[in-house]
Amino acid sequence: MELRPLVQTPLLHHDLGSELHDFRVSEYDEPGAPRGGIRRVAPLHRHRTEDEAWYVLRGRLRFLFGNEELDAPAGSGVLLPHGVAHTFWNPAEEPARYLLIARPKTVALLEALHRPEGPPMSPMKELFARFDIDLLE
């Protein structure tokens, strides 16, 4: 099979990459935070084997890595090594847009969580564990 360069236009709500690649790039919009509150994009979790990265295109994201919070405004890149507990959210009332660069197991979990018929009925901790990710809350 011949591998060819891929182009995905638009990238928003689509993936660039496939099961033939070591990673995928996806573009997401994250709505603004509720007034006075936090809406996490993902629950607190830890990848056992895969690193994960983000690039903030617009707005800002806030990350919790272990016990440390980090703000990432537009133009920021964030690389998270596997083994570190983390979550993230949009702390502002304005929407944010970002790229997620993820490896195959992380992509497969996201596909399972966001499939049209909804996530599988198995308990979430078991679902995450199938992809070498520990759900911590």
- Low-pLDDT residue spans: none
| Overall geometry | globular
Label the CATH architecture of the domain at 15-103: Sandwich
CATH class call of the domain at 15-103: Mainly Beta
Q: Residue-averaged pLDDT, rounded?
A: 87
End-to-end Cα distance: 43 Å
| Strand content bin | 35-45%
- The helicity comes to 10-25%
CATH superfamily of the domain at 15-103: Jelly Rolls
Radius of gyration, in angstroms, nearest whole number: 15 Å
Q: What is the strand arrangement across the widest sheet?
A: 1-2-9-4-7
CATH fold category name of the domain at 15-103: Jelly Rolls
Order of helices and strands: EEEEEEEEEHHE
Number of strands: 10
Query: What would you call the structural class?
Result: mainly beta
What does this structure look like?
The protein has a domain at 15-103: Jelly Rolls (Sandwich). A hairpin with a 7-residue loop joins strand 1 (15-16) and strand 2. By secondary structure, the chain is mainly beta. The chain has helices at 104-113, 124-129, and strands at residues 15-16, 24-30, 45-47, 52-58, 60-65, 68-73, 77-80, 86-89, 96-102, 133-135. Helices cover 12% and strands 36% of the residues. Strands 1-2-9-4-7 form a five-stranded antiparallel beta sheet. Strands 6-5-8 form a three-stranded antiparallel beta sheet, with no helix packed on it. It contains two helices and ten strands. The mean pLDDT is 87.
